[in-house]
Amino acid sequence: MSIKEFVQKFYKSDALIDSEILKTYLHPEVILEWNSSKGFIQMDYDSILEMANDLSRAYVRSKVRISHIISEDDLVSVRYSHFVKTIENPREEMLLAHFSTIWQIKDDKLYRGYQMSQFS
User: SUPFAM superfamilies per the record (predicted)?
Assistant: First the structure.
């Protein structure tokens, strides 16, 4: 599997709201540098898993729609929109945010991430 296919598989899975699935994709030394609407956030393995656990408490379903994905060497750049369904209203899909992320892959895992997000 190419690294581009690996990243696509990651985003098509429920990893963003299921920490057990997420563990299979993360390198133990993963670092995510995220420029969000709340400012700069740096996350490590444990804090990324904690975020997935938090999301799973609020959302029953997560869907990512990728609009662009490009790979070169050990890097994959992906632009996507993240949609969720809430526990209160599981029939309605809600846009969480738009993201642009560059992932560095190491040992067939997500190793370094550089991400920007914007609410719609």
Answer: NTF2-like
DSSP state string for the chain: --HHHHHHHHHHTTGGG-HHHHHTTEEEEEEEEEEETTEEEEEEHHHHHHHHHHHHHHEEEEEEEEEEEEEETTEEEEEEEEEEEESS-TTSEEEEEEEEEEEEEETTEEEEEEEEEE--
- Contact (Cβ atoms closer than 8 angstroms) between residue 75 and residue 104: yes
Q: Cα 40 to chain center, whole Å?
A: 16
**Residue range 56-74, pLDDT digits in tens:** 999 999 999 999 999 999 9
Statement: residue 106 has pLDDT above 90: yes
pTM for this entry: 0.92
